[in-house]
Amino acid sequence: MRKFICALLAVILVFSLAACSGPAAIKNTGNFEFTESNYPKMGGSLAALPLGEAITAYALGISREEASKLIVFEGSTTDNYKAIVDGKFDILLAYEPSEEAKAYIAEKGAELEMTPIGADALVFICSNLNKVDSLTVDQIKDIYRGKITDWSEVGGKKGAIIPYQRNKDSGSQTLFDKLINLGDEMTDAPKERIIGSMIGLLEAVAEYDGSENALGYTVYYYLTNMESDKLSTSKILAVNGVKPTNDTIASGKYPFVNDFYVVIPKKLSEDAPARVLYNWIISEQGKELVKKENYVAK
Fold first, then answer.
1. Spatial distance between the Cα atoms of 208 and 198, rounded to a whole number of angstroms
2. If 75 and its partner were Cys, which of 21, 79, 95, 247 is the partner (CB 3.0–4.6 Å)?
C-alpha cells in the first residue's frame, strides 16, 4: 500500500508540473512575474535544449513550440560561454566550459555564477554490426593514443579501428579532454575524422563506408533522448563492463560522468530576471522539472 501511495504522489507531482501554466507556476519568486518581454535571453549546449524548452514553456505558460522560438541552443559550448560574457545571453544551460572558454572569461575579466543541475556521461559508440560490446578505460585511451589500431586487439573481428574525434570547442570534446585526459598523447586525427557537430558524428559512425570499424563519442542524453533513431544502426559500448544508464550515471558506476550547469553573470542583482530564473532552476521545484525531462538531476 505504501508503494502504491508513493507512486500515486509521484504521478500527481508530474501532472501538476505539466498542468501549471503562467507565472503562478513559478513558486518562491516573490512578486516577480515572467513575461515574454522580460524573460532572460537563454542559450546553451544542444543536449540541454529540451530542458530549456521545458523551463521556458513552464515559466511563461506557453507551448514548447512557442518556447523554442524564444531560446537559442546552437553553436559550440565554447561559443555559448563567450556569448554570455559578451551579453548576448543572460542565462545558460551548458556543459563544462572548454579551456578556450575559460581563457576568454579570464581575458574579459568576467565572473560567472554556475551551479550543477544535472549529470550526463561521455559515451562511446560503434556500429551495431561490431561484435565488441565493451571496452576498458585503458583500451579507450590506447585507441586514441594510437597504440591500439585494430578491433581484433579488443575482442572484435580483424579490421582497422576508425576513431572519430570532435572539434576542440565542442562540449563533448571538452568532456573527452577532461575525463579521458590524454593531453598531448592524443593522436592527431586526419581532418575528415574531426567532426564539427554532434549529429555529424553520429551519422559518421552509423553511415561510414565500412561502419563496422568506426568508433566515436558523444553525450548520453543527446543520443538516447534526442537522436535515439541512430541506435537502429549503432550501439553504445559499455566501459569496464558498465553500461551507461540514468542509474549508473547517477551512482557514478559508469566511469565517464560529468555535471552540466545553469550559468549567469555573477554581478546580477537579486531581482534581475535571469537571477530569479536561476534561483528557481536550482530549487527543488526546478529539480523536479529536470527529472521530468529524463535528465539525471543533481
1. 15
2. 79
**What would the pLDDT profile of 136-158 be if each residue is shown by its tens digit?**
999 999 999 999 999 999 999 99
Cell reading at 156:
572484435
Cα–Cα distance for residue pair 81/48, rounded to 1 Å: 14
Phi, psi dihedral angles at 69 (to 5 degrees): -80, -15
pLDDT digits (tens, 9 = 90+) for 31-56: 789 999 999 999 999 999 999 999 99
Count CB-CB contacts under 10 A for residue 196: 11
Per-residue DSSP letters for 20-74?
--SGGGS-S-TT----TTTS--EEE-GGGHHHHHHHHHHHHT--HHHHHTTEE--
Q: How far apart are CA 122 and CA 120, in angstroms?
A: 7
- For residue 59, report the phi and psi dihedrals to the nearest 5 degrees: -70, -35
Amino acid at position 127, single letter? S
Which of 42, 24, 43 is closest to 34 using CA atoms? 24
**Do residues 56 and 25 make contact, with C-beta atoms less than 8 angstroms apart?**
no
Backbone angles phi, psi at 170, to 5 degrees: -80, 155
Residue type, 73: F
Residue corresponding to grid cell 590524454: 182
Distance CA(123)–CA(254), nearest Å, equals 10
**Nearest partner of 24 among 52, 70, 59, judged by Cα:** 59
Half-sphere CA count of 125, side-chain side, radius 13 A: 33
7 burial type by CB count under 10 A (0-12 exposed, 13-18 middle, 19+ buried): exposed
The Cα–Cα gap between 177 and 102 comes to 14
Tell me the torsion sign for CA atoms 179, 296, 234, 72: negative
